[in-house]
Amino acid sequence: EAGVVQSPRYKIIEKKQPVAFWCNPISGHNTLYWYLQNLGQGPELLIRYENEEAVDDSQLPKDRFSAERLKGVDSTLKIQPAELGDSAVYLCASSSGSGSYEQYFGPGTRLTVT
Amino acid sequence: GENVEQHPSTLSVQEGDSAVIKCTYSDSASNYFPWYKQELGKRPQLIIDIRSNVGEKKDQRIAVTLNKTAKHFSLHITETQPEDSAVYFCAAFVNDYKLSFGAGTTVTVRA
Fold it and tell me: Is the per-residue pLDDT at B31 higher than 70?
């Protein structure tokens, strides 16, 4: 079974530029999460989707961050414009939902904003 | 919201010795406690988890214990090996499907 797929793995951009990250969850997993992981810290939830609905986006900085999961499978996280402080690893995770708590992570996208 | 504290932040052990990492949580409604292992530059991997209706769970050299009254849980690794070197994260999960992570413990196993 393929795991959670993310691309790109690495991205370097200048500040004020836009950037987008893509995630493909494990097949059949209805719940998708985007996390932010700063160096030396644990992941922090940005947004959670149940199918195509964003059910928890309370931690998403909506002035510059947006996300979508139009067909309830793949998801895209966008930052526009990026700031220096956005440099971090952006992790995607999925779970099957329906009472299953286990979350499985993708390899992440390491963003560097210069 | 949930607050998870993890100790120690770094742990160095001799190969073959045991390693213990401890976490505390604040929300008594938390009912699921996973542990993740993250090697440098790689994804966090779920290595073991425990639900609030169980006090202890073991999987080969790894075990997790949970004390709901004291609101703390621990990861125990026995007979450590060099490949156990990684950053370990504990997490607590509340009914709204939100995982709150500890800050991580960097484990180094000395050969």
Answer: yes
